[in-house]
Structure prediction request, 259 residues.
Amino acid sequence: MREKAEYTIKLAGDVFNGYTVEEKIWQGATSTVYRCSGSGRYGSVVAIKVLHPYRNLPHYVKLFIREAKIQSRLNHKNIVKVYGTGRKDHLVAIFMEYVNGINLRMAFQTMDMPATTLLRLFIELTDTVDYIHKRGIIHNDIKPENIIIGKSNGLLKLTDFGYAEKMGRWFGKKNEYSGGTERYMAPERTKGMSDKRSDIYSIGILLDEFLKDKLGGREEIYSIIVKATQKEPFKRYTSAAELKFDLEKLYIGYQENRS
Prediction:
């Protein structure tokens, strides 16, 4: 822990590929994200995600660079844009779009988020997940901390593709990208297996945690959650688009009942 603290203090104020590191905005188990400004190739303000020095081993660097490559190929308004990677001495970083926002958990705890706002956000999320699935990618770590809500525009941004997989390639066997957050992880993921329905399971857990109680006991949300979080993947929604369709119906019905 001392190494992490010293590292964070030393990096603030440093210049990294033309950008001055200004402040830490998030820290996880394997990396720290900083807001930076400067005159580099990616614009005046960026975020950089720096792999912790004690993770600077070939295997972890490979996975870190792989994450950047996957995310940089995705172009969607609800996905944090990755510009590229860079190195400074022994450090490796991912350069990405800076989003002035907070994660879904913090937003839920500190902001007034009525049911209609949350429904809109989850419709955005399912649309985003459908987009990545159609491009052959499974996110594998959909959780509140990886969903950023813009402070000024309320726009949802999905990030952190560190456990992402190519669809179908590894289903049914253990792979080196297995991992995630247990609370939001589909049962098959604990065995090293996943497909697009694993992401749907994670969204179902989020719906149960953040939206269910806001809707005042509407039966539709319970049936949506039950279908999304079935233990057997073949019993869940077949696609994020199908889940989005049911959420949109719920949104329309909820709005009509309130008017």
Notes: The chain has two domains: 2-96, 101-258. Confidence is low (pLDDT under 50) at residues 1-9, 170-174. The CA atoms of residues 90 and 116 lie 47 Å apart. Residues 2-96 form a domain with the Phosphorylase Kinase; domain 1 fold (CATH 3.30.200.20).
